[in-house]
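Hi support team,

I'm opening this ticket because the web form for multi-chain structure prediction keeps timing out on my end. I have pasted the exact lines I submitted so you can reproduce it. The total is 458 residues across two entries, so I didn't expect it to be a heavy job. Is there a limit I'm missing, or should I split the entries? Thanks in advance, R.K.
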Amino acid sequence: MIAIIDYGVGNLFSLCSSLKAIGAEAIVTSDIEKIREADRIILPGVGAFGDAIKKLNDTGLDKIIIEEANKGKKLMGICLGMQLLFEKSFEYGEHRGLSLLKGQVVPMEGRLPRELKIPHIGWNALHLTKSHPLFKYIKENDCVYFVHSYYAKDCEESLLATAEYGYELTAAVVKDNVAGMQFHPEKSGDVGLNILKAFCEWEDEK
Amino acid sequence: MITKRIIPCLDVKDGRVVKGVNFLGLADVSSPIKLAEYYSKCGADELVFYDITASYEGRALFTDILREVASKIFIPLTVGGGINTIEDFDRVLKCGADKVSVNSGAIRNPELIREAAQKYGNQCVVISADVKRVDGVFRVFAKGGRENTGMEAISWIKKCVELGAGEVVVNSIDTDGVKGGFDIEMLKAVCEAVNVPVIASGGAGSTQHFIDLFKAIPDIDAGLAASVFHFGEIEIKDLKKELSDNDITVRL
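Hello R.K., no limit was hit. The queue was backed up. Here is the completed structure from your submission:
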């Protein structure tokens, strides 16, 4: 069972449908017991970092996520959910993240070549920086769907894939049992479904 | 590198896909769900659904269809037609839409764009503009292209982006349904005016028209069409292969 963390951020219809399509069992929940019982956790998210981390703090879900991750439970953040895994974000001020991964989230504005449009929106090719069970069904240059105006940096330690948009932007990260996808696997066609499938099958290396 | 998007557009009325020629005389084509599945398999990068139903019953039928499409197809979905209030945004987003396109609703109440962008994010709000030359000036038309609003189109689109629209669909009434190619002049003018993604609509009749579009305007993000895809005159798979052969970056 996968627990999709419900903290009132974003639209979970497609994420639920895509997990159903690959035969995975998932529930959308904010119930602490259910999150504890789940084998895996997905932390979704769309919107502003500050609002999202405040909602996690106010509901105490931040502590549960950190606790479960520290126990070794497989956790994947998607889009803003990935950004929340880092130490801090500079989206409208400065906010502390969950600090499960080293790195920070910064605006594209002022950092990318000026002719590039912000947000980075559309299908872009993945450049895999290392091999990992999460990407066992996909290959170099497979395209996935991005929508974001902020990106993670100083996260070399966990970097798993990049996408070229002015620079090589962080597209996916993983460290031990904690993973993050900047793009939307639930909106990335078969490539995305295959990443979700690999997440469902992801086990510790023996 | 970010790829150029190819987007089939499905106009839905009473649960069926229709496509107008110059917006008049609608011809029935097919089941929206079947078409959507077909396009997704062929490599469409995104789908646009326009609800052109007027009745309440028709609207409920549309959201049922949308929900079914969104539960089977995992590419971005944009929904437009009859979006006049924040509640309308909410209604279609809950059914699995990723982006919501506003047209007449924004003309009546531009603040709708700001309100929606604040609530759902800029990336969620698409301004769709039906534009036609009147005495050599680009004018915005409302009500499915039937009513001249008198507004100058480029300044209207700029205003919408300032209010928070994260993407622009420009539909040239002058080239729509004629299959003589996209309206390069109009699209160029829009691309020069805004720094958000611009989607070209109206006039696609052949693969060459898409090549011409992306070559003439490197800044354009996507090409949208309906009938040429629905009637199989252009196969999306072949189109993307041709684009790629012409050094235009696409998702294959």
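A quick check on our side: The longest helix of chain A spans residues 189-201. Let us know if the file doesn't open in your viewer.
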